[in-house]
Amino acid sequence: MLLPPEHPTSLLIAEDQLMTIPADEAAFYRQLWISEEETIWLVISDWLQEQGSPYGEVIRDRILTGTTAPLPDDGPAPTLPLMMWLFEYRHRLREAFYEIRAMLPHLQLHTRFLPANFVRILGYCAALEDAQTLNLSYNRLSGEQVAWFIDSPYLEKIVSLEFSWNMIGDVGVSHLAHARLPNLLHLDLSYCRITEQGLLALLDAPWLPQLTQLVLEANLFPREWRAQVRHAAPHAVCRF
Hints:
Leucine-rich repeat, LRR (right-handed beta-alpha superhelix), 2 domains
């Protein structure tokens, strides 16, 4: 299976928890979440063991042996469950990213019903740097979820991008229009619930004139907008 199972605690809840602790400490946990460095987790493991917490042994065991023993239940300090959750979730995401790397350069992530947490962290995945195709069709993505990853610096080599059958709407298209996609040639936005407002944002996208194929089938804007789309994307074969 490409994706790790969904954790019962969502990332949004984790973010809420981070907001309840001092800013410096919250920044530290966020850095742990995205870090590729295992050494810092081993240092934390040693510290936790010195404090008498079984979480330290669990973290060291995860890193050195890859086992997945049940988490201890010892009534830890308030921030320890959050730290452990970040470690566990990051560990499973890394496994998923290894599979993503094996699929490169053509990432076919369609019809996966991607967990919201996975979508949120997708932009941090350096493996995307070599991706040429990113197919996210049929994933129930919202416009807000597009914003979570579309500004990633790792998407600049993308040639083909597919969002069909996602309810990204005008919000998602607006974020997409501001993304840096210097190599994009193929874009599929069919069945995405785009209205005139979203189309206006799309027409201002700096990469629109370079497209060779643009699919906008089954959206919510009137037929009279088609001429403007063809004018803004003169080299593209357009399908409405």
